[in-house]
Amino acid sequence: xxxxxxxxxxxxxLGQSLAGGFHLQDISMGTQRTYVKPRLLTSLFGTDLxxxxxxxxxxxxxxxxxxxxxxxxxxxQDLGSNLKKDRAxxxxxxxxxxxxxxxxxxxDISGRRKPNTMDLLTTPDILAQMAIKAENSWSNxxxxxxxxxxxxxxxxVRGSGATVYNFYTDQVGGARPAKVDMLLGTASDTFIQRFMxxxxxxxxxxARSGENATGQVVICGDAxxxxxxxxxVQDTLARPLRSDVDLASMAIPTISDGNFMYDNFKSHDxxxxxNYGAEIIAGTNLIADADAYIIPVGLINGLGKKYAPAxxxxxxxxxxxxxxxxxxxxxxxxxxxxEESNVLFFNGNPRAITHLTTSN
Length: 360
What we know:
Layout: E1 13-16, E2 24-27, H1 40-45, E3 52-53, E4 58-65, E5 87-94, E6 97-104, H2 106-109, H3 123-152, H4 167-172, E7 180-181, H5 191-208, E8 215-220, H6 222-237, E9 254-256, E10 261-266, E11 272-275, E12 291-297, E13 303-307, E14 324-330, E15 334-347, E16 354-357
Parallel strand pairs: 3-13, 7-16, 8-11
Antiparallel strand pairs: 1-2, 4-5, 6-15, 8-12, 9-10, 10-11, 12-16, 13-15, 14-15
């Protein structure tokens, strides 16, 4: 038997030892710790988002509701009953502004070296690192904004002082009903039928908006997903295998958002379940542990973002961009970069999201 050993050669630099000015030490490969950046919602709904680029910082949104009408019986000499006119409501919304800034000052690079090397830090090094961190910050912001639309029906404001809108209350005229308790911890042989009922009710709401979804997914917290998955495994034991995946004997399927793998499975109740127990703000899951949300995929007027232009001489009254950046340089304070996005996370069809939970 021949054993082949692959050797990895690490380029090492020499640095001054703490033991004395004439002693040298190697500088070896270091470790950089980071965080997992959740992007499931952005990945799932990113291409479906209804994004609009405004020329002002506010807009009107009209909703027209058509009522059911049927002809009535009449005498031949009569004209029949009058049709009721459809009613329309107008909503006024303001677009909030969000921003961040970062700086590379002389003291940030003075006498400092790049990690894992003996090369001196430079201003471009600092700015490149901070630009990546800023991009990750905006990515987390997008994911958090979508999660809040789904779970709370409201727009993210992040302390901006902007108005918090409840899109369900605005459009429906009342509070959202309580979450449907699926009681996944209670023994039952009707779980599949109950989820099929919720899928059909959700589909009816989609149809009422004049749209067709390409699919319906259930974004689940950890406990909800685990209990629903256990039910699916037991259900598959009692019938012939209908797909390439045997949940009872094979590893659970996963999908990727480009950063992390998420457990998921397709059920013959017509729904796809995805486990999303991620958090961005420490200690707060994007989806609560015992909750889940049926969300249609492929809607034209569903989740979206409304962008407003920056209020600068160059941008005011022009079509908005999703993000703006500016920088300035001072010999003592260094280079400062400011980024902003003026965006209202918006839901044009909050009825099409069904809130579920399990109390046991």
